[in-house]
Design brief:
GO terms for molecular function: nucleic acid binding. This protein is an alpha+beta fold. Helices cover 40% and strands 15% of the residues. It has a six-stranded antiparallel beta barrel. Helix 3 (107-121) crosses helix 4 (125-137) and helix 6 (186-200) packs across helix 7 (208-219).
Length: 715
């Protein structure tokens, strides 16, 4: 505990019935005595006290040292009104020669000093007392003598309504005797509130004047019948509030936040009107802490690379930006999206060697110009393409925390949104086929016909803009911290990135690009069968499956499922990832499915869909044919049954003679089926002949009888 008493220190008395706070005014040279004064009492005067007694009371917690001073006013000279300055200087001139004299605290001596001062300045002793007490109670400085004009007028407090008209008389009351206007009472305020809520706080966005008129029409009219028609007529004008009164109370009741939300919608409020109490810089403490990703449809029409007569529309531009340094870390320019495929391409580019990436487009840059090829700790994106199961590999295997903005909250990714705006400004003057926002005049040329760039050339432009941004963009609103200022870091993305890598605990992660691509690909279920790895009705195989004998195992023990990754743009291969997600087995399409080779998944699904439609269309026709076939078979069977009704041979004999009967039938068939080349044979209609076989005839006798009938048939 601090065992010292200081001049101007405040102490609160704990056991006092009212709130008593003493200020220390003076301490003697031996530090044994002091004078204090109650800072709130209007009758207070300096009181002599012993220092050791005060310290004892503080130690016993009967006094508490106060940190804040209730009388302190933080006001600058330029903010003071002239009358305040004038009164303060006058009061100070009166007491400045006596406030520093120790005798002023002794009753008898104080009385003499005050009397002399009042006579010298021709003012009352009471006024001198007032200045002294104000000086002592309010902080013992010149500003303690400021008047309390700022408390005058009961600002913010409503006046009570009575019969007397408040406020300035209206112009109408000066010209018409007897007209006074009205005071706004509680009932009138309720009408004002109802009118504001009903007519102003709505999507119609009515003006204040219109709201006033609607209020008058609804609350200050009566219905009258004129010429048989019911009309509204204003009531007595002395009972109608003026537009000035309505505006005054409108502003008193006004809730700006609620007003914007009800008139423009909550999404618009969050986007354009919400309080901005923090900076995006607080999201990141080093490179890689957080990246922002977003997409936009470029304001330019492109042509086909192989036939420049074909206009192919507007491309999609994806960009990924590091929050800490504002570096562009990934790009994708194409016709995918905005979708997961487009986002997937941009994230893959984020981990790509930018020197090799630029070379693909004939651009020569070194790693110092664009050193970014790592994954961040977290990625902030829109809800659309980053929702669902597609980003599971990004989150689970690559260990990137994914955050989605609320709907219609593009402002939460302000860095990348601003990059898109500045990029558009940089290229708009030089890009043919640029979208014109203004309306086209009659007969004016369609700007889409001005398209000259193909997607390869447009990508080169976007890369050049990104490299320029990374290496030369001066970030006007970037707040450099004290350590950056010490190291003379300029607010340029590449300098912030390099400084952050060396001095901040960034969260960049270096991972093989193949592994990144593997974990960004969509995933599906494949089935291990005897015929191969079946995925989407196509069969694949791989070295691992052959080595571990998956196919024979599936035949013996049954099929099982595995998870595979695939690129829907190239279905020639699928990939079996390891559980850790850091390796994979590549599977190739089998020859029996070559019909699907070099096709996209979308094309294959379209073909399979068409085959299903054809099969469904053929179902009824096939069903009819099956019915017809059943009838034909049934007719033949019925004929056979009718021909077999008069069988007289015993059942046992029929069974016994099967072998001999078969031999006879075979001989007959051979005779009828035998070939004779070069000789024309007459066509003999076949007919069934019943042989008069006797149960007592031998096998040879049966055969002779059969031959005889055969010879007769030849004749």
């Amino acid at each position: 505990m601090d065992k010292k008493i200081y001049i101007n220190q405040l102490y609160k008395v704990i056991d006092s019935d009212d709130e008593k706070v003493d200020r220390v005014l003076w301490i003697n040279d031996s530090n044994k005595y002091c004078y204090t004064i109650n800072i709130h009492s209007t009758k207070a005067l300096p009181v002599l006290k012993r220092i050791d007694e005060l310290l004892t009371e503080i130690e016993n917690e009967l006094l508490i040292k106060m940190v804040s001073d209730p009388w302190v006013r933080a006001i600058r000279e330029e903010d003071m009104i002239e009358i305040d300055k004038k009164n303060r200087e006058r009061a100070w001139d009166i007491i400045k020669n006596i406030v520093d004299q120790p005798q002023i605290y002794i009753d008898k001596e104080r009385r003499k000093l005050i009397k002399d001062t009042s006579q010298k300045n021709a003012i009352s002793e009471k006024t001198v007392y007032k200045y002294l007490k104000r000086y002592w109670q309010r902080g013992m400085n010149k500003n303690a003598l400021l008047s309390d004009y700022y408390r005058c007028g009961a600002s913010g407090n409503e006046r009570k309504s009575n019969n007397k008209k408040r406020g300035k008389p209206s112009d109408l009351s000066l010209h018409e005797n007897g007209y006074r206007g009205l005071n706004v009472d509680d009932d009138m305020k309720r009408i004002f509130r109802l009118s504001i809520k009903e007519f102003y706080e709505s999507k119609k966005e009515a003006s204040i004047q219109k709201v006033y008129e609607l209020m008058i029409s609804n609350f200050f009219t009566r219905k009258v019948t004129i010429n048989g028609k019911v009309q509204k007529e204003l009531i007595d004008k002395e009972k109608i509030p003026s537009i000035g009164q309505f505006k005054y109370w409108f502003n008193k009741f006004r809730d700006y936040e609620k007003e914007v939300k009800t008139r423009k919608g909550e999404n618009r409020y969050n986007l354009d009107y919400r309080p901005i109490l923090s900076s995006v810089d607080t999201e990141a403490w080093g490179p890689g802490t957080r990246f922002h990703i977003d997409a936009t449809i470029a304001d330019v029409y492109l042509v086909n690379r192989f036939n420049r007569d074909w206009i192919i529309g507007r491309p999609v531009v994806y960009a990924i930006i590091d929050v800490f340094s504002r570096m562009i870390t990934g790009l994708y320019i194409g016709l995918e999206g905005p979708s997961w495929l487009g986002a997937m391409m941009a994230i893959a580019n984020m981990t790509e060697d930018k020197v090799l990436f630029c070379k693909q487009y004939g651009l020569e840059y070194n790693e110092e110009n664009w050193p970014c090829k790592e994954l961040p700790m977290s990625l902030l994106a829109d809800r659309g393409e980053m929702e669902g199961k597609m980003p599971d590999g990004l989150i689970g295997y690559l260990n990137v925390s994914l955050e989605n903005t609320a709907p219609y909250r593009g402002d939460l990714k302000g860095i990348v949104e601003q990059y898109f705006r500045t990029t558009n400004l940089k290229i708009k003057h030089w890009t043919p086929g640029l979208v014109k926002k203004e309306y086209k005049e009659r007969g004016e040329r369609d700007y889409r016909l001005d398209a000259k760039l193909d997607i390869y050339q447009f990508t080169k432009i976007i890369i050049e803009v990104a490299v320029h941004h990374n290496n030369f963009k001066w970030l006007n609103n970037y707040k450099l911290d004290e350590y950056m200022l010490r190291d003379c870091v300029n607010p340029i993305p590449i300098e912030l990135w390099n400084w952050g890598i060396q001095n901040k605990s960034g969260k960049l992660k270096s991972i093989s690009q193949d592994v990144v691509k593997l974990n960004l690909m969509p995933r599906g279920k494949a089935t291990i069968l005897r015929g191969g790895i079946k995925f989407n009705k196509m069969f694949y195989s791989c070295e691992l499956a052959i080595k571990e004998k998956w196919y024979s195992t599936a035949e013996l023990k049954g099929s099982w499922s595995i998870q595979v990754c695939y690129d829907p743009r190239n279905i020639n291969y699928i990939y079996i990832p390891t559980k850790e997600g850091n390796a994979f087995e590549k599977c190739h399409l089998l020859e029996k499915n070559n019909v699907y080779k070099d096709k996209t998944l979308e094309e294959i699904e379209d073909r399979l869909y068409e085959e299903r439609i054809k099969k469904e269309k053929n179902t009824m026709a096939d069903l009819q044919q099956r019915v017809d076939l059943d009838e034909k078979i049934k007719t033949i069977v019925n004929e056979a049954e009718s021909m077999s009704e008069n069988i007289k041979i015993k059942a046992s004999q029929r069974i016994k003679n099967i072998s001999s009967n078969k031999k006879l039938e075979r001989e007959a068939l051979r005779e009828s089926e035998k070939w004779e080349i070069g000789e024309e044979r007459s066509n003999i209609d076949s007919e069934v002949v019943m042989l008069p076989i006797n149960d007592n005839m031998s096998e040879n006798e049966d055969l002779d009888l059969f031959k005889k009938y055969r010879e007769d048939l030849k004749k």
